[in-house]
Each structure stands twice: as C-alpha cells, then as structure tokens.
C-alpha cells in the first residue's frame, strides 16, 4: 500500500485501512514528504483530500440525502437510543420473565451465535418491497426465481431515485386467479400481490413485465425510511422521554397502560366470522377500527396498478429460507405457531387470507442476512391517531391492570374508534434476532403493542423510528 493511499485512508472517517494500526498512536503519525514535490503542492493536495473527505458522505449519510427535514434524522448510537427498553418499575415483573407456558421449543441441536454484538451492523435501505409467491422456501437468491417479480426487480435494479430497495419474497398467495374472479388464460403472465413499506401499501397483481413501471410509478414516489412521518419534523434525541415513545409535536397521545397484561394460554378459538366482535381491540393502541370501518384509499395513486392500504396494524416478518439455512426452516413455523397461540385469544391473529382491519399479519420471507443469529424477526408498526378506550365494564381500562383477570376468548372489548379512517404509514421497524418461542409472549406484550425492547443488547439488530427521526444505520 503506498504512502499516499495510507494518508488518504487516514483522512476518510468512513474508510479504514487494514494495514493501519488501530490505536491512539495512529493520530500522531506524520506522513513523510513525497520526494520531488514542492511543499506548496504537497500542502495543496493535502487540503484537497481533506475537503473531499469532508464532502464525501459515509454509507449511512448517503441514505439520508433528501430525507428528514433540516437534517432531522440521526443515527441512534445504542439500542436504547433507538427504542426504549422495558423497566420492571413501569412495565411490571413480567418483562423480566420468559414465557413458561410455551407449547413449542427449538430442537436441542438448534445452535446459534450468542457472542457477537448485533446492533449497528445492518446496512441501510429506504423502501421494502415484499412479493407474494405462495411459497415458504426459495432458490438461494430469489432474483433467480424464473418468471418472477423478484427476478424482474433484479434486472431493473434495486438502487432507485429515492434510495435502495430491500427485496423480499414471501409466502403471501400469488395471484393464480385474476381479480375478475376467473382463472387466468393459458400462457397469461402470472402476477403477485406486493407490500410496499414504509408506505404501508398493498399493490395488487403485479406482473414481472410491469416491474419497471412499478418502480417509476409507485416505488420511487413513495415515502422512505428516512422520510419524516407525515411531513412532520422529527423530534431530536434527548427530549426527556424515557421508557416510551416521544410524542410528535401537536400529536401527543398517551400510550395505553398494558402493565400486568396476561396473554395467551387459552384454547385457540376458531377464526371469528365476518362481523363478529372480538377482544382484538385490547391490543390495538395504534389502529383502533371497528369491523365495519372501510379503509380510505391508499395515498399512493397509480394509473397502472390498483393499490390500497395494508389492512393490518402490525406486521411480523420471519425468515423461513431453509435453502439458505436449515435453522430458518425450523424456527419460522415454530415461532408462527407460538405467535398464533398468543394472538388468537386476543382477536389479533390474521392469517394469509384475513383482510379484516387491524390485527397482526404474520408472513414468512426469504434470507435477510445473519442466519447465525436465527431467528430473525422484523416487526413493522403502523402509525395511527386512533387509540383504544375499552369499556370499563369488562374490568379493563386502557389495558389490563395488575391483579385483574386476563381477557379470555369469551370476553368482549368495546372499542371507540377515534379518527379511524386515517391512513397510517410504518412509524417503526424493529429488527430482532436470536428470537426463541419463549420470547414470543413478551415480544407481543411489549415490542409489538408498545414499541419497547425486552432484551435490547441480546436481540436488537437495527431499525428506524420515523416519529423521532432515528435510524440504526
């Protein structure tokens, strides 16, 4: 490595030379003068290199270009800078205990890396496109799936005008039938429903030949992970909030008190029929809508594609890519079973064909990286001003209180929707790893429903909070 290269690397904060010593003595290193160059030229070149290094954005900075207002988005240095951690004094002793009534467990030989530091190593992206395939496993690289939307995305590229796309295949059903109710004609191109985040938009029946139009007409016009939520200026770090969400200016709404909530354990009831009232609204602090509520049209308009809001209030994405790592093929079905066991009695479970508003949508996706930290679970939380107020006659007010019975499948919560027609975007992504079935209960209680971390150092890989203007990358 030349002295010039070493000197340049030392001036770039985002470039580390593998040959340079990584200690405090490095700051005292004085590069020798290059032979045959006058001092004025050498000084001028050094100045130019410093200016170039100052003006060249690092990887994380590049993702923020054109993002937050007045440079509002900030890289959160630690796990708890990004999301609050649970506190037994506030959240109860339950936050310290794993589920002891789990019905499933990983195999005895299920081994993962327990030593690496997880937080801060996820590479940033701006939009997340999730493609329905009807499958739970795929070829090693999903862009090699023949005649698929993923293959078409690979051809047109994931680097777009509004930033990089994270592409995921999922087990959402593909469109074997056309939306007119009839079967597709023989030889007709098969389409896929797609989810676009953080826009919280479902795009119907996208065909591979339409992907270039999809990018220009929908994806590049959508909000991104570094877009301020609803055009509002994000609050900076250090605003005095602790163990809860920082409120956005002019939009301060108290989170429901779910302290002491006991979840799950009851026999799973059948999926409620349409119009049947359930206790689902106990746990919908961000999307309280009665079953009859019709969602307003998506904020993303398109000439080519039919779009609408994703009906769910929360999304759980679990890697099931067995071809890439057998552990993911084992963990995803077991976690889904445990999540379902807990969510069903609460009225929050939504299967692949359940479009009722609210609830938690559970999907399998392909490789996201870090299989040695299996299981990887990505949680998207939707923005909404709607908040739940449960009928006190059920013995519950804004969540179950300590000492009161848990809600059972026979109890009914009576929600009062506030501004329930307001569309919401994804306000947060919480990317967890090393998730085990015994973690699921507290992940639902605290992370999904309240946006808090139960095991921040052990489990958080990264994410964003668009309400507070924070990113992990």
From TrEMBL:
A Pfam match: Suc_Fer-like
Source species, domain of life: Eukaryota
InterPro entries hit by this protein: Aim32/Apd1-like, Thioredoxin-like_sf
Extent of Basic residues compositional bias: 18-31
CDD domains: TRX_Fd_Sucrase (cd03062)
Organism: Exophiala bonariae
The protein's name: Uncharacterized protein
Residue ranges, annotated region (Disordered): 1-36, 223-245, 260-300
Annotated PANTHER family: ACTIN PATCHES DISTAL PROTEIN 1
Biased composition (Polar residues): 268-281, 291-300
